[in-house]
Amino acid sequence: MTDLKDCRYCGGKAKYYTHEDINRAGEPGYKSVCYCSRCGMQVEGFDTDPIVAERKAADWWNRGIYDLKNH
User: Fold this and answer.
1) Following DSSP, what letter does each residue of 11-68 receive, concatenated?
2) Residue 2 CA: distances (Å) to CA of 5, 8, 26, 54
3) What is the spatial distance between Cα 13 and Cα 7, in angstroms, rounded to a whole number?
4) What is the pTM of this model?
5) If we measure between CA atoms, which residue out of 46, 42, 38, 39 comes closest to residue 18?
6) Which is deepest, 5, 7, 13, 62, by most CB within 10 Å?
7) CB 57 within 8 A of CB 16
């Protein structure tokens, strides 16, 4: 996994997890979630390859492209 930057909103430490999941089209694959351990901001990446899913989520996190589900 790529090193994750601290949260751009609160400065909290970022963490991640990856697990098997199904996308909105019903296709199986892996979802990787990067999230702030302090404020809960998060971003998700999905792919059929778990490494690719992790790279997508880490890239979006480090670029500050967060899902605004928790805010």
Assistant:
1) -PPEEEEEEEEE-TTS-EEEEEEEEETTT--EEEEEESSHHHHHHHHHHHHHHT--B-
2) 9, 17, 28, 8
3) 6
4) 0.85
5) 46
6) 7
7) yes
